[in-house]
Amino acid sequence: MENVIEFNHVHKSFRNFQLTDLSLTVKKGFISGFIGGNGAGKSTIIKLMMNLLQPDSGSISMFGLNYSEHEKEIKQRIGFVYDENVFYEQLTLAEMKRMIKPAYRNWDDDVFQHYVQTFELPLHQKFKTLSKGMSMKASLAIALSHHAELIIMDEPTSGLDPMIRRELLDILRQLIQNGEVTIIFSTHITTDLDHIADYITFIHQGEHMFTKTLYQIEEDYAIVKGGLELLDRETEQEFVAIRKSKHGFEALTANKSRVEQIFGDMVLLERASLEDIMFYTKKGGEQYA
Ligand SMILES: Nc1ncnc2c1ncn2[C@@H]1O[C@H](COP(=O)(O)OP(=O)(O)OP(=O)(O)O)[C@@H](O)[C@H]1O
To answer: Ligand 1 pocket test: which of 11, 13, 14 has the largest number of ligand atoms within 8 Å of its C-beta?
Structure first.
C-alpha cells in the first residue's frame, strides 16, 4: 500500500514540549484520524506536514518527495483546512477565490461552483458574517477546488453542531470513494472517527502511541472488570492503567487475548472506546511516571 506521508524519527522541541522519535505513515486513499488530548502535539504534527514548521532532526516525505527540494510541487497537491479562520474577515468568498486561484495550476472553477452550490455558500457575503459551519464549508470548498490529492484538516469539526458535523463527515467519506484522495484530520471528538476513519493515529505527550484500524483497536484493546483478589504486582503489569474501588477493579488492556488467557472467565471484558483508551493512557502515564 502506497504511503502519502512518511515521518522517519522526527524530533521537534519547544521550550516545554517535545515530539520524540516520531515515525509514522499515512496510507493513500484512506481517512486517517489523529487523536490525542490537549497539547499532545497534533497541531505540531500537522504543521510539520505542511512545512509550516521544520523538524530539528529526522525526515519527512510527502508523496515520496521532500520539502527542501519540492515545496511548490508538494503544496500544489495538498488542500489545507485550518481550525482558525485563515480567511480575511472583510473579504467575500468570491473575492477570496479570485485571490487564491492563481496560486494553483489545477484550479477548477467548475468544481468550485459545484461546492458553492452543494454547500449552499453565499458568494458575496463577508466572511466575518458567516457562521462557523458555513465558514468551515467555505474553507473546504476552496481546499477541494484544485484537485488536491491530500486533504489535511486541523480540528475541522470543533465548534460545529452535530448535524453539520455529520454532513461534513459524509462529504469526507464521499471524497475518498475513488481511492485517489487521502484525508487526514485531527479531532478531540472521538465519536466522529467511529463513523468514518479507516486508521486512527493516537498521539500522547508528543509520542506516537499507535496507528491502527478501528478493527485492530477492537482486537487489541478492552476494558477489563474483575475482583480485587485477582490483582497483584505481576497481574497489574498486564494493564495500561487500573481504577480500583471497594467493589473491584476496572482496567484497560492493550493485549486482550493475553488477558483472556490469564484470567479466563474470571473477568468481564468490554469494548474499549477511543475515549477509554485516551483516558486510561493518560492515567497510566500519571501513575507510573
Ligand atoms: N511555536 C511554539 N512555541 C512553543 N511551544 C509551542 C509552539 N507550538 C506549540 N507549542 C507547544 O507544544 C505543545 C503541543 O501543542 P499542539 O498545538 O501541537 O497540541 P495539540 O495536540 O494540537 O493540542 P490541542 O488539541 O489542545 O489543540 C503545547 O504544549 C504547546 O504549548
So the answer is: 14
